[in-house]
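Q: Hi! First time doing this. I have a protein sequence and I read that you can turn it into a structure. Is that right? Here it is:
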Amino acid sequence: MLSHGTIEITASLRNDNPHRGAGPQLAGAPTPEEVRAHIWGPWKFSADGRDDTGRTVAPQQLAIGEWTRYGLTPTTPPPWSTTTTDAWHRDYANEPVRLSITARSKGSEWTVPPEVPVTIESDS
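A: Yes, that's right. Below is the predicted 3D structure, encoded as structure tokens:
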């Protein structure tokens, strides 16, 4: 149960092309579900509580005005692709992370679709 002054948020990577994979399926080609499940963007979640694909992080409660940070790891091309990982990363260089943030509080729910630039921090 949410306490006064808290919201529950769920962060997910948006699928900006929900019709991807909807065309006719060719023999030996990936299934529409496999195509839709793949993250077609530069990053996936690496945070604790993420789903198996790295698309969604488990809901968490935050006090109003509080913020959080999620770990990200680079994505790779789908297994059926002939694109190299280096080419995949070049294609997505400088692309933002396209999120869908769902917030819930006191019986209300709303979703915002921000695009977030990614800053890579060094370990030094």
